[in-house]
Here is the input.
Amino acid sequence: MTATGQVIFDPLLPWPVLWALAAAAVLVAGLALWRGLSGWWLRALAAAALLAAIAQPSLQSEERRPLSDIVILVVDESASQKIGDRPDQTAAAVARIEAEVAALPNTELRKITLGDGAKDAGTLAMTALAQALAEEPRARVAGAILVSDGQVHDLGLAPALPAPLNVLLTGHAADWDRRLMIKTAPAFGIIGEPLTLTLRIEEQGRMPDAEAGRPVELAIAIDGGEPQRVTVPTGRDLDLPLTLSHGGQNLVQLTLETAEGELTDRNNAAVVQINGVRDRLRVLLVSGEPYAGERTWRNLLKSDSAVDLVHFTILRPPDKQDGVPVSELSLIAFPTRELFVEKIDEFDLIIFDRYRLRGILPAAYLDNIRDYVLGGGAVLVAAGPDYASAESLYHSGLGDILPARPTARVIEAPFLPRVSALGERHPVTEGLESFAPEGGGAGKPGVPAWGRWTRYVELAGADGQVVMEGPDKAPLLLLKRAGEGRVALLASDQAWLWARGFEGGGPQLELLRRLAHWMMKEPDLEEEALTATAEGNMLTITRRTLGEGGREVTVTAPDGSSTQLALTEVAPGRHQATFAASDLGLYRISDGELERVTALGPASPREFEDAIASATPLDPVVGPTNGGFVAVEDGLPDVRAVREGRPAAGRGWIGITPRGAYQTTDIRIAALLPAWAFLMIAAGLTITAWLREGRR
Here is the structure.
């Protein structure tokens, strides 16, 4: 506790008036001096006493309690500060600053630790410093110290500091690194058509002579598949051609080789998500005869503007002779050879709707369709009585790949189609009841809310996945993989009843849409799939399977650590779990059968865009405060007190400026003299001056 005093005034008249009176007194004293009056100086003192009485001087004394100085220490513990021995350097620097500040008299330390900014914002050191500064009295802040690698990403938010800012720089001057940069990447691409990624491999830091400018190996993998490796140059833009093989999200993973001595490999990888779209879906619909359900398929396919439909309808089979000239049935000859031989591979899907073997399509054409499926194509057979007859497609070359054979029985009786136990797990039919129209079906518990069909074909020797059933669990909709392609068999031609609203109708549009997209290998309808979606720092992992039993996955983080995660079955065939990710980057998920690579934030976070420690980014902020930079690898600095305005950094030391702040605890005010005393003094001086002048 200290005491100080000062003289204060509380004038009876405004200061301008008081100054005017003082000027008049000086003028009168000067006039007396000019006339040679011997008591002029006594009169001047009398005037001063009167002016002092009007000014009312008082003695103010204060009792002050000194306040400590505050030093703000901001510790950067972002992802780039975890490279190499930077954590050890940071810990040593923090311990040294704490010890040095503790040894300074009347000085306190405020320590703030910061990590990565949300949503890959990088290191927000200036934001943290501004918040810390706002919580402290600015008059007590004697300095700020930042322990960082210098890579700060919010320099535009740097606060106006009342004291020096010094930086203890981690890292090493000999550090070097390569990073993979994606310059341009399309958001979507057409399946089967080439697209281009533009990338660049940049060298940073003090590159060794053996590594500078050396071509490096780049691995390219799509959806976690086997990577393709190419050797590419560094330091210039590269155009990388890619071709997408399927629709939906295509995850393109680019990985750069890691050289010995490189600072980090976290910026050696990048992931690009490209949505694969089909330019046009080419569908061939072959109708064996005109009937009411034919329009259902046509409406479904024509409702999508991206579908190119070729519809081949047999209006008159060869065994029917009705006298109508052929020229009136067809304006041009139908190009059967061109469609079924020369251009068959251009179709994404072929649908046979109630088609019979009547010699219109030669057996060789049907063999071509079988080979087309085995090579990756898709065939859907919507069967009616035609499939149970001697002219069934099963008795052609297609019979080798069809999922069931007919028994020659056609059941003509109303029945309610049901989703099978397997169908509840299959993406083509799972949750199909939720698409049923309101008011349809029997409305009983456990009974699908849709209308009945009136006919189905009895099948035997089912060799595929039965996802829908008829009476007594008879196979109704069967799916099968044949070679590289897919085959579906619908053992009824009555799906059109749902479209017409019979007994309330049903979800025929959703069923046929899913069926067509499954056959065209849309990823969202795969039976066995492993997916992961990110929201914030949470990964939602979903495993879809037709198998039974529990599931586990192994999640491998960007730093190489692995976590076993048990999945919970949330719906038939659908297992899920959430995983709290601790870091941004690439996560690899595997259950032993399937593997998925997903990116949480960018594959190469902002923290690793420039991983080399540098004072350059912070120099515009540090310079104006008279602070400086000290490399931790050169030795830990002392902390000294320096006068305000002086340089606050030097070789082996950094400085703070003591502020001398205090808190006033008591104030006393006492008049120097009472007013009557001033009047007595003025009167005495005036009388003395008169007597002196009279004696003369």
The first strand starts at residue 2 and ends at 9.
